[in-house]
Amino acid sequence: MKSILVTGGAGYIGSHACKELANAGLRPVVFDDFSGGHREFVKWGPLVEGKLQDEELLRKTMRDHRIEGVMHFASSIVVSESVANPRKYYENNVAGSLALLGAVKDSGISRFVFSSTAAVYGIPTQLPIDEDHPKNPINPYGVTKLLMENALQDYSRAYGWKSVALRYFNASGSDPEGELWEDHEPETHLIPNAVRALKDPGYSLKIFGKDYPTSDGTCIRDYIHVRDLARAHVAALSKLDQLDSFQAFNLGIGKGFSVLEVIRAVEERFQKQVKVEFAPRREGDPAVLLADSKRARSILGWEPEYTTIASIVSTLL
To answer: The domain at 172-222+254-313 falls in which architecture?
Structure first.
């Protein structure tokens, strides 16, 4: 059984990827420091607890487990925090990732799948956004992800690697079998906060802006189910040997749902009203973000299964 190192494999998307790897007959080896992940999410392979900056431990892990490929999810991900505390994001997302790339190079591994983000594009100049859209990130989170895409491209060209960066839009939903779910601290994603607002009497969901040029005045986003994201990572891994040294793919469903549409879907799912309050727009929030994912569909053979907001929220616990 081939072993794949999954950094951040105890986190939201990483743990779902581990399950899909196991379903594909592969052995996920989780490397995580539990700064954001959960021990109960490590179910499909061995665990090594450590920080990305520990290159010696990374090399030992790759050697001991005979790692044949890497999926890299471990990073700090909260946009607002990246603005307030950029040091954390450069240390974790750049310095930590460079340590990982160094250990990969030293270990003779040449297959790498990188968890990237649509935040590398910044404010869209065209819709839907394809992979050739200009990259102008507007926050440190997006900047650090783009820096690592560039580094990975350089490493791949120089060392003969096969690598992929997967730029996803709004990750959402939960494992349909109920073995995994979304659990961040703090939670910044719309859907779990909407669920909290209908379950927690003392909490109201804050909607930022109601005067956007959209059908109901709220922002429209492209929501992609976490299982579809995980399946895309496994598809990318299986196709690496057929690709150029480095390639980037968008992951989205190509359809958008407004904040209010998402809230209504959550209310339908739980048959209960979500308490909301409106707040001013946040700086840098575009009215609409939509992915063009034709490249992933045609080259990776990937097709999202969950293509409506109702189907996405139907998997919530």
So the answer is: Alpha-Beta Complex (3.90)
